[in-house]
Amino acid sequence: MLYVSGMLNGIYKDSDPKKYRDTLLSLFLQSGDWQYYGPLKKASKQEEWQEH
After folding, report:
1. Average pLDDT value for the chain
2. Domain-by-domain residue ranges, the chain?
């Protein structure tokens, strides 16, 4: 499942920023892998980041 989500994440990066952030968040929460933290923070707006 995480492999598929990772692939979709790459597809969404340029085409759908909201899905990209949602997928990064999901990947981070499901896997606990910190490799998703930096891209998630970078892809999020300041206000969104403070909400999480």
Report:
1. 81
2. 2-44
In this predicted structure, what is the pLDDT of residue 32? Answer: 92
**DSSP secondary structure, 1-52, as one string:** -HHHHHHHHHHHHHH-HHHHHHHHHHHHHHH--GGGHHHHHHHS-HHHHHH-
Length of the chain: 52
Quick: pLDDT tens for 8-25. Answer: 667 778 888 898 899 889
User: Which are the contacts of 23, defined by CB distance < 8 A and separation ≥ 6?
Assistant: 5, 8, 9, 12
